[in-house]
Amino acid sequence: MKSRRQFLIDAGRGIGIAAAGGLVWAGFLSGKKAYPTVLRPPGAVEEDRFLAACTKCGLCVTACPYQALVLAAPGDGRPVGTPYFVMRERPCRMCRDIPCTANCPTGALDAGLVSDGEAGKAVLNVNKTRIGLAVIDRETCIAYWGIQCDACYRVCPVIDKAITVDPVRNDRTGKHAILGPVVHSEHCTGCGICERACVTKKASIFVLPRRIAMGESSDRYIRGWEAGDEKRIHDAPEDTTTVTPRSEKSPADYLNREDL
Amino acid sequence: MPGIVENRYRILRRLVQAGALSLFFAGNAWGWKVLQGSLSSSLLFGIVPLADPFALLQVFATGTMVAAKALLGGGIVLLFFAAIAGRAFCGWICPVNIVTDLADTVSTAVGEGNRSLRLSRNARYWVLGLSLVLSAWLGIAAFEWISPIGALHRGVVFGMGMGWTSVAAVFLFDVFVVRNGFCGHLCPLGAFYSLAGGWSWMRVVHSKEQCTSCMRCIESCPEPQVLPMVGKRDGPVTSGECTNCGRCIEVCPDDAMRFGLRTQGTKEKDPKEVTS
């Protein structure tokens, strides 16, 4: 029979060893978790919840008929065992039955996010996919140089909604138009077909996760020229001050301060 | 042929392990609908969901509820091993078992008995606890992210990448540091099935009458602490740490071990056994 003293010493030693191992383990994991620009399959829940729910089974990858989805292997840099796209190589082909999402057993890919209608009688709608958002580098996009190119616009599965070509005056020649592609976030699915199609050496239109590609304006800024937009201010909290690190300084003065 | 009888379960286990792995590979590569996915979640015949209950437990620890398909799959797998097969996952399905059995064969062949580290077989239960604590703390299924089982299995099915390093590390650890070091001392999935499989129906049963106490069963057993009754009394293996690999049965020269039911062997032996 162990003495109580010996029992406590043994328990303490066990906890100590476990803590040592656990801290090394935790340090390793926290370094592996973050890959901010990873592009998840259609219907993926928000990244932190996705990483918690995905059991790395690969059923989404198996379901992909175009073999566009890749399961991250150790050394890929992405969180190991999770699915991702490399759009320049194999973009999402926007299957109407969304087999990857439908095949997910855990709910890390949630069919409800890519469906119309109430739960129970929901109908899949692949156009609700939000893998990311296509972003254009206007400095390398040759359409913005004034050279005629509309490759991204032509291949876009949501053509004329997700990508439009907007003519603007070419100030360099003074008599031509620049037909520049413009991405619209309310329709872009982030499928990446534009990135695959882009003719420049490194794609000048590319998909980034929305949390990275997009900013967020506060409810305090109203588009007065849009009917009803001021209604948003009614939903804003009573406290009218938007608290930011700049809040300590008065709005009128902060732009004039040297420490901006 | 000499060797086949003494290795009949080992050969059978290799066929089952390789067969499962091949079916998973074919499921992804050629769309065969027998087994698709991987060990953490899969689809049997395109309909029946299967899931690793320990992986789901880690997901629960993060505070995440999984969808019904995974719950059902985890329930089926847990029920199968807890009620019927015991810790048979480790000996019959897990691909790392191929690696660690090979490590044991190699280390025995070169006489590497003088390993430097002593490690308690209960360490795995600490690792099991840690897996859940870290899952809760970091919000990810902690063991699934470092598991050499997942690395090897997904590596074969979906592409290996650098996954071979952890598998090689397990091999070297078993050969040079601790005998049966990974599967028998550290693996939290083995620990989970040890706890879950302790009441299973299928058991290795010992009969003292035939036993000559040659101790080959204990020498070859990857979990020798589960055989305390050998040479002393009749009865089934009661510990959940037994992987039902059948190694003790095939190496026994006296037919003193056999597969049977948990309720068998403690009192009268059935007449078939007596006459043989």
Number of strands of chain A: 8
In terms of structural class, how would the helical and strand content of chain B be classed? mainly alpha
What's the Cα radius of gyration of chain B? 19 Å
Name the CATH class of the domain at 47-128 in chain A. Answer: Alpha Beta
Number of strands of chain B: 6
Low confidence ranges of chain A: none
Strand order of the biggest β-sheet of chain A: 1-2
- The total tally of domains of chain B equals 2
The biggest chain-chain interface is: A-B, 38 and 54 residues
Helicity range of chain A = 25-40%
Query: Average pLDDT value of chain A?
Result: 88
SS strand fraction of chain A: 5-15%
**Distance between the terminal alpha carbons of chain A, to the nearest Å?**
70 Å
Largest sheet of chain A: 2 strands, antiparallel
Radius of gyration of chain A: 25 Å
Short description:
Chain A is α+β, with helices and mostly antiparallel strands and 260 residues long. Chain A has helices at 4-33, 47-53, 59-63, 99-103, 142-145, 151-155, 193-197, 210-213, 231-235, 251-254, and strands at 70-71, 83-84, 115-116, 123-124, 133-136, 163-170, 176-183, 205-208. Helix content of chain A is 28%, strand content 12%.
Task: Describe what this molecule looks like in 3D.
The complex is a heterodimer of chains A (260) and B (276). With 260 residues, chain A is α+β, with helices and mostly antiparallel strands. Helices cover 28% and strands 12% of the residues of chain A. Chain A has helices spanning 4-33, 47-53, 59-63, 99-103, 142-145, 151-155, 193-197, 210-213, 231-235, 251-254, and strands at 70-71, 83-84, 115-116, 123-124, 133-136, 163-170, 176-183, 205-208. Chain A is extended. Chain B has 2 domains: 5-196, no CATH class; 202-275, 2-Layer Sandwich (Alpha-Beta Plaits), CATH 3.30.70. Chain B has helices at 8-29, 53-61, 68-85, 88-93, 96-109, 123-138, 148-158, 164-177, 181-186, 188-196, 216-220, 247-251, 271-275; strands at 35-38, 41-44, 48-51, 202-206, 235-236, 257-261. In chain B, strand 1 (35-38) and strand 2 (41-44) form a beta hairpin. Classes of the chains: A alpha+beta (260), B mainly alpha (276). Chains A and B meet through helix 1, helix 2 and helix 3 of A and strand 1, strand 2, helix 2, helix 3 and helix 6 of B.
